[in-house]
Specification:
Elements: H1 3-18, E1 33-34, H2 35-42, H3 51-60, E2 66-68, E3 74-77
Antiparallel strand pairs: 1-3, 2-3
């Protein structure tokens, strides 16, 4: 994973697990966020995301920290990566 990918992965962990409000992101009761909202709101943190970048981070995460919905429109932190389920 490149340094930029690591930076993005840490950012995703932060906003999906700890502080979605930091960028104005709203999670549903199950922790899902719309990918389109995440892409748009990440700009406020000077992070450039695209659907392709997000898919690559999700795919390449060695600890499977994130999961995309079956249709690819939502993302959340994966509780299995943190020993919860």
């Amino acid at each position: 994973m490149s340094k930029n990918d690591q930076k993005i992965s840490k950012f995703l962990s932060y906003v999906l697990r700890h502080r979605p409000d930091e960028i104005g992101l709203v999670l549903d009761p199950n922790g899902w966020a719309l990918v389109s909202d995440l892409i748009e709101r990440s700009r406020s943190a000077s992070i450039t995301l695209t659907e392709d970048v997000i898919c690559e981070i999700v795919r390449s995460s060695d600890k499977q920290r994130f999961i995309l919905s079956d249709d690819g429109t939502k993302i959340r932190a994966n509780s299995r990566a943190f020993g919860r389920d």
